[in-house]
Specification:
It is built from 14 helices and no strands. By secondary structure, the protein is mostly helical. It folds into 2 domains: 255 residues, Glycerol uptake facilitator protein; 82 residues.
Length: 417
């Protein structure tokens, strides 16, 4: 009793200590909304800064515009930055990708709007940095540097100067088509490599970089590769006051509408595809569920048929058993009679034979000298034996009266002689 009483306060004290101990929860960067927004801002800033500077400096320094440098620079930039920050925010860095993720429920509406704001702010910061770093002189004004990094079509296209000599230009329809195609490739690659909760998969960075490389290859000669509304907005704001051939902001609508339309189309395709696959899966489950009762009914019917067949077999066996028993009884009843009759007949025959021989011996003693009487007795004995043996072979069964007659017959014959 004393040990139990002393143990109870110790246990209560231990329970209080366990309850009072705080539970530590590991907080990941992805769990905090503003950290994810900061990752999107930083990633968009880095990507846009590299694109602005590489397009401007690379094309002008090389002397002859080429699409190889923009393709490689854009693909590698998106690949590296997405690999760095994709694990935190999902690696959107593009309002079009964020809109598609909102439609497919891979990100909430609030987080999506925060992402878009952070992306635009990061792109504007990169545009300010690029304009500040561009060397300007009277012979090489700012617009000469920025013409290869500002998105535009017709007079604002990178190929406008070359095509203008032939009196042709890439108009808005051509720009819309190529931007839609390029943006659909980019958005589809980014969305399909995101998990249902918005986290990036392992191949997200690689596929995103390759998709941007293909998009730039298609769109750069015509629109200077927009593909990203934030990227188009960041440089257009600061290039507006640099006396460009065409106002960048006046053409900015195309570089917002086309990416958002492409994002909507991609999201619609994904949603319809998921609905179709879900319906097919439900139908398959329904067919399987409906097939189970039918299969069970078939099994039950087969089992019942087997039971009936077994019951019929048992009934036939039971019916056959009495018949066999009856036949066996009949054969058992019929078989002893011939055996007994034959035994009785053999006994009678032996008795008759003995009696006849005895009589013949008596006659031989009385009339030893009379050969005629001995011959007659021998003939009588032969006659009796000859008549008895065929009768036994032809008719093995004899009645009691016949036995009596046969017993009396040999006794009467010697008296008659």
């Amino acid at each position: 009793m004393t040990m139990e009483a002393s143990a109870e306060p110790v246990l209560e004290q231990a329970d209080e200590q366990v309850a009072a101990k705080p539970v530590r929860r590991r907080i990941r960067p992805r769990d905090v909304r503003w950290i994810r927004a900061a990752a999107e801002l930083a990633g968009t800033f880095l990507i846009c800064a590299v694109i602005y500077l590489s397009y401007s400096f690379g094309q002008l320094v090389m002397g002859q515009p080429s699409v190889v440098l923009p393709v490689l620079g854009t693909a590698l930039t998106y690949l590296v930055v997405t690999a760095m920050l994709g694990g935190v925010s999902g690696g959107h860095f593009n309002p079009a990708v964020t809109v598609a993720a909102m439609f497919t429920s891979q990100i909430s509406m609030v987080d999506g709007l925060i992402y878009i704001v952070a992306q635009v702010i990061g792109a504007i910061g990169a545009g300010a940095l690029a304009v500040a770093l561009v060397p300007v002189s009277r012979s090489v004004p700012a617009r000469t540097w920025l013409m290869f990094s500002v998105n535009g079509f017709s007079g604002g296209s990178p190929a406008a100067a070359t095509l203008g000599q032939q009196h042709i230009a890439f108009g808005a329809p051509m720009a819309i088509v190529v931007e839609l195609i390029g943006c659909m490739i980019v958005v589809a690659a980014a969305i399909t490599t995101l998990r249902s909760d918005g986290r990036a998969r392992r191949n997200h960075a690689l596929y995103t970089g390759l998709a941007y490389g293909v998009g730039v290859l298609v769109t750069y000669p015509i629109t200077c590769a927009g593909l990203n509304p934030a990227r188009s907005t960041g440089i257009a704001i600061f290039a507006q006051s640099k006396h460009m051939a065409v106002s960048p902001i006046s053409q900015l609508w195309l570089f917002w509408i086309c990416p958002l339309l492409a994002a909507s189309l991609v999201a619609l395709v994904i949603i319809v595809t998921s609905i179709i696959t879900d319906n097919m899966a439900m139908r398959a489950m329904g067919v399987a569920t409906d097939a189970q009762p039918e299969a069970q009914a078939q099994v039950d019917a087969f089992a019942a048929t087997g039971v009936q067949a077994q019951t019929g077999t048992d009934a036939q066996a039971d019916a056959f058993a009495p018949a066999g028993a009856k036949t066996q009884d009949q054969s058992a009843q019929a078989s002893p009679a011939p055996v007994e009759s034959s035994a009785a007949d053999a006994a009678d025959t032996s008795a008759q034979t003995v009696d006849v021989s005895a009589l013949s011996d008596v006659d031989a003693v009385q009339d030893a000298d009379a050969s005629k009487n001995a011959d007659a007795n021998q003939d009588a004995v032969a006659h009796v034996d000859a008549g008895t043996i065929p009768d036994l072979q032809a008719e093995p069964l004899h009645t009691a009266s016949e036995k009596e007659d046969s017993d009396k017959e040999p006794k009467d014959k010697p008296t008659e002689d």
